[in-house]
């Protein structure tokens, strides 16, 4: 609908003498389609033109009617409501969905941008909980959105593989651990040992000293400490990779925090030479009081650098070495202040690209209404959640469609899709609640519902092929009925919604779009015959079914879900 919006803006520009570029962003989709397909509110122009909004709207409406570009234009208060020429829009939508490789979506505005997206970034020897799921699935969707918009994307997993925690891991393993047990289920076992460390340290505080000593050894490159630390990483990564494979997630780089150990001195030197370091209780910090923020700690009193320092080094590496023009961080909202501090320090260091750093924050994941905490050992493991979702999806499929060919494969796509979609359909800043009954409900606003609608469209098209019915290249759309129009109108918004989703880095807009498309398509499917319709209606409806199928399938791809053809 970008083209229609633009045409409307041009006509209004012509009528009012205001640049079209200032008008186009104001064009809306009326919430109630009875009013029209597009609306232009004229209130903003009143001051400039010294005219009342209804008078302005009247001038615009007259210009639109005279152009014959649209089917109609009416004034309602300060609004111009425009009706589109249905058959032309329908033809354009079908054509576009067939011709462009990315269907109705791609705008490819991102050419020349190289975006480093930091996502997932779990911590070694700690569980990859359902909380970390959010960063992974939101990040993956953002990667795909940016790529579809023509950006070059570098996906980075900033693993938490450094810090005093590893001293504790080593002590716990040496005291109570067993190599074979760790190998069998590394993350769970290492985490169990870590939790035990905290319990035992309450009664035996000397454990903490021991842990500090082991971390110091690790920092100094002691072979035994290094060997154990490497092994923890290796075993944890094996487990994380299984989860990534299941989710279809990939990274260009695994660059953990430890990767920056030898790049920290340069950062500290640069901060010092630029006069940004001050001393505070023995620690070296960057004072941010002028921006009402607590100081950014660079080096603790014992000389150790911390999380923030490593993020400074990582940002500089991504820009200077990897050539990233834009830096995106998909990390929970609880780290908002941390990123504000890091970005501010980069700016103070004189990095103009600090302005192109973005923290994509998100809310919490609750599990059946409960908060999750790693410290107390109350963890819901993502692999368990996925396994259960897959097995429940399998029982639903067994019940609904026992003769389906590749049930196991479809159950995997549906189970995982259910979990991923549940996360992405919510605006990312809102908390997400997770309940199996809800996420797997085929009739709710869920992944399975969308996948099922897609499979339904595929089945109509499959039957048409089996009956030897082909969709002609040239389609004459004489009359577009209400149910068909609702689908066309929905599909016509794809480019616009895609653009907003990219600009706001908000996959939930795509999830909303695909749900609305499915609602419109299902209504059309229930109320109108498709294969049984007389020609040329049959061809039109099949072409529309195919366009809806393509749009749903591509939207699912953007969100990181599979689109099985039958289920
Ligand atoms: N490992 C961190 C955590 O689990 C997230 C890291 C996010 N990325 C970053 N560059 N700080 O909290």
What labels describe this entry?
567 residues; alpha/beta; Gyrase A, domain 2; Isoleucyl-tRNA Synthetase, Domain 1; five-stranded parallel sheet; three-stranded antiparallel sheet; 22 helices; 10% strand; globular; binds arginine
Task: Characterise the protein shown here.
The chain has about 575 residues and is an alpha/beta fold. Among the domains are: about 1-85, Arginyl tRNA synthetase N-terminal domain (Gyrase A, domain 2, 2-Layer Sandwich); about 165-250, no CATH class; about 390-560, Isoleucyl-tRNA Synthetase, Domain 1 (Orthogonal Bundle). The chain has 22 helices and 13 strands. It has helices spanning about 1-15, 20-25, 45-50, 55-65, 85-100, 130-150, 165-175, 180-185, 185-205, 205-220, 225-245, 265-275, 305-320, 335-350, 380-400, 405-425, 435-440, 445-465, 480-490, 495-505, 510-525, 535-560; strands spanning about 40, 70-75, 80-85, 115-120, 150-155, 255, 275-280, 285, 295-300, 325-330, 355-360, 365, 430-435. Strands 6-5-4-10-11 form a 5-stranded parallel β-sheet, sandwiched between helices. Strands 1-3-2 form a 3-stranded antiparallel β-sheet. Strand 7 (about 275-280) and strand 8 form a beta hairpin. Helix 5 packs across helix 19. The longest helix has 25 residues, at about 225-245. The mean pLDDT is about 95. Arginine binds next to helix 13.
